[in-house]
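Rather than argue in generalities, we have chosen a single entry, letters for residues, whole numbers for local backbone shapes, without further comment.
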Amino acid sequence: MKKTVLTAAVILSFGGAVFANHVPAGRYTIDNSHSKVGFEISHLVVSTVEGRFNVFSGNVVVEKDNLDILTEINMDSVDTGIDKRDEHLKSPDFFEAQKFPKMIFKSKKVTWKKDKFKLVGDLTLHGVTKEVTLNGQYKGSVVDQFGNDRVVADASAKINRKDFGLTWNKLVEKGPVVGDEVVLSFKIEAVREKK
């Protein structure tokens, strides 16, 4: 069976000087070994399935009044702990990866309350674009044991998969096998590139 790789690009732009007061300016690379991109969805109404994407990369650019993040996620690396389920998620029943190879989030505005933020942007998935809101928290910056500047932030968003044309389902006694609401989560640690 031919494997299909679906890459997703997530672009987050933070306006204002909130980060500029705390984060050293520069270009940062996401540290995969200390970051996580995951999701959660209900199963059989009373249970929950969690998953993650094991292969992703990205960078963060911090400027005086702006912060941009670009992350590429390999959807072929989806991991729910069950190989058969992972293959189904990659199939035309869900991602339809060959026809729609990318998922893109592009921000439009951000609002802050201390270290917490709401990031509004457009999410394009399965050929459909919808506005979504990421709720996040800036966790802080630190210099590691090797003298590298690191920044950490968490963010999550709730989406309805049917809004993006992901409608596959089956009914059982309690209701649908797969829920409609999906929680996307990003736990990102990034390292500043040295000049």
